[in-house]
Amino acid sequence: MSHLELAAGLGRVRTMMRLIDVPRDLSITALSTLANLERLGSRRLTDLAALEGVTQPAMTQLVSRLEREALAERRAEPADGRVVVVAITEHGRAELARRRTMQAKRLAELLAELSEADRAAIAAALPALERLTARALDTAPPSQGAAG
């Protein structure tokens, strides 16, 4: 199988993971932004916009919505009080955890429908997929985005 075929297959897996992400009351960009804030810590709006590949005005709107829903908050950066950063709230962390649990449950249901051989093949591929994910998260330029 070629690199392009592997990439296309992984793209289909990403699409499947998005499709089983319920509920759909938050956009993929909103969820990705929350996940990045959880993983990377507080960030400036301009940095978040670059990470997500959106304009700064679009990110400002998104952060305002996340604030209204108490999922994120703006605060002064500790090192320089003049700088405003966006941080995930405890409610935002809890919401991400709840959604991950729901997604894992749905994925487990789908996996139960596969043969034991298919489940074993997926399990065998997990270490390589973890390495691929770590490489992508560690080396992807901010403009490439971290959604997914």
TrEMBL record:
Any GO MF annotation of the entry: DNA-binding transcription factor activity
TM annotation in the entry: none
Domain of life: Bacteria
Domain HTH marR-type: 1-131
Protein name listed in UniProt: MarR family transcriptional regulator
